[in-house]
Design a protein that fits this description.
The protein is 40% helix and 21% strand. With 475 residues, the protein is of the alpha+beta class. It has a 6-stranded mixed β-sheet, with helices on both faces. It has a 5-stranded antiparallel β-sheet with strand order 7-8-11-10-9. Strands 12-16-19-20-21 form a 5-stranded antiparallel β-sheet, with no helix packed on it.
Length: 475
């Protein structure tokens, strides 16, 4: 036991999995892996001042599930550890969500761990994944058509929904864990479904790996685990570079992101897909983003003309707009107004989807110049009598942009400003009579700009309600 204990502690230290004094949730199924995890953690918990919490899920798939839950609960009680046990009908859950049994079971397990971590204020959630699991995962990823990141397999530590998922047993083989349990006199529960070959992971474990060991490489598990370690380092470095470029390149707007196509094209191929993935990942769960989505976006950026579009999951789309690639929602756009809205001075008008325009009068000397992009400074005394109104564009609209020599069609102004077509119909206009005073967030009219003689300024502000949190549900 002492040898295993030292190896696990060394692995924890090397990968910085734990901090002294933190609370850790242990996922304990009752099998050999999780029993080993529980007993090893219980051995060094006092030394590291750890607070341990046990979490167990009964999948309600096997008759012995109830007895296993009671066994884990009893073990936790004997060790003096708090224990959260939950029963979930996985067959019912998979039908409700329209997913497979494996996916439904995984979701239920991780939901329980998340609930437990929140309840006890834990920072980390530990699972019993080991070196053999690592080898199986890498082979499965290869068979599915993984990217380079898939070769990193199961990471020792990763951030997930506000917590850290840690895998302290990745340094141990299944055979070592089972031998440890036997020597310690533990009686782990054996999940009979692990011997069924109707699951892909079981097929890899029971058929493919033994075949590779016998005919190609007797140390294939170690080779794959070593591959994962090297791939994880490369992944970390590439992610660092991609994140840096992402921050430099991406411009967020109300329900999406924009890239300059030249900037994207100038990136090394190894970073292009990663930067695009990061942009999509802000709005979509990772399980909805596939390699062909990224390939289609890259092809669009390279070959698409203005207006070209590809459809993405979750109501998202990629579109070329002049020199930019836009990633944005195509559903639930702000609905057009049936009739113009009156904007009182001072006052506030709420537009569809929660956008708003406010107005207030300020002495010119109290104004902080220059106005921000979402602001407009209007010479209040120049405004003709009549109510200010807010509407969207109409056919034949004329606008005289500030700084321009004369008026032009609003459509031409939008084209000059390279505003995407779908944005033109949802850009609010502040008007008085037939005059456009302000194209919100873009430009004011030359006619109503402030001058040296201006004494009173009408300040207009356009506030956009970001829907990022709404889009990111499920992520």
């Amino acid at each position: 036991m002492e040898t295993l204990l030292k190896r696990v502690k060394a692995f924890i230290s090397k990968n910085k999995l734990l901090e002294t004094g933190e609370t850790v949730v242990l996922a304990v199924s009752g099998g050999p892996d999780s029993l080993c995890l529980l007993h090893l953690f219980n051995r060094f918990a006092e030394e590291m001042q750890l607070k341990l919490v046990v979490a167990h899920l009964n999948h309600c798939l096997r008759p012995e599930g109830k007895a296993e839950a009671e066994g884990v609960g009893g073990l936790a009680k004997r060790l003096g550890l708090p224990c959260e046990i939950k029963a979930v009908d996985i067959n019912k859950l998979k039908k409700e969500l329209g997913i497979g049994e494996e996916e439904a079971g995984r979701k239920a397990r991780y939901d329980l761990m998340l609930e437990t971590a929140k309840k006890y204020g834990a920072k980390s959630i530990a699972t019993g994944h080991h070196r053999d699991d690592q080898a199986e995962t890498i082979l499965l990823n290869i068979l599915r058509g993984s990217s380079v990141d898939g070769l990193a397999g199961i990471l020792p530590r990763r951030f997930w929904k506000g917590f850290f998922l840690i895998r302290p047993l990745l340094c141990l083989q299944r055979q070592e864990i089972e031998s440890f349990c036997k020597k310690q006199g533990f009686e782990p529960y054996i999940d009979s479904s692990n011997l069924e070959t109707n699951y892909k992971r079981n097929q890899v474990r029971l058929k493919l790996i033994p075949c590779l060991e016998k005919n190609y490489n007797p140390k294939i598990r170690d080779s794959l685990a070593g591959l994962a370690e090297f791939a994880a380092r490369d992944r970390l470095f590439l992610q660092y570079l991609a994140r840096k470029k992402y921050k430099e390149m991406v411009k967020a707007f109300q329900d999406g992101s924009a890239f300059k196509i030249d900037d994207l094209q100038a990136l090394p191929d190894a970073l292009k897909s990663r930067v695009l993935y990061m942009a999509l990942r802000k709005y979509l769960p990772s399980g909805k983003i596939y390699r062909y989505h990224l390939e289609r976006l890259l092809d669009l950026a390279e070959n698409g003309l203005t207006g070209s579009r590809v459809t993405l999951p979750g109501g998202f789309s990629g579109q070329v707009s002049y020199d930019r690639l836009l990633l944005s929602m195509v559903e639930n756009r702000p609905t057009k107004l049936e009739t113009p809205l009156r904007l009182t001075v001072p006052g506030r008008v709420t537009l569809p989807e929660g956008y708003s325009i406010t107005s207030r009068i300020v002495d010119r000397k109290a104004i902080q110049w220059p106005p921000k992009k979402h602001q407009a400074f209007i010479d209040y005394c120049c405004l003709p009598r009549g109510d200010l109104q807010i509407r969207f564009r109409l056919p034949g609209d004329i606008f005289h942009p500030q700084g321009a020599p004369g008026a032009k069609k609003l459509k031409e102004f939008f084209i000059d400003q390279k505003i995407p077509r779908f944005r033109r119909d949802e850009t609010p206009l502040v008007t008085v009579g037939s005059d456009i005073v302000w194209v919100a967030g873009v430009r004011i009219s030359e006619k109503y700009r402030t001058r040296e003689s201006t004494e009173t300024v009408l300040v207009l502000e356009y506030k956009v309600k970001l829907r990022r949190s709404k889009l990111n549900k499920g992520g």
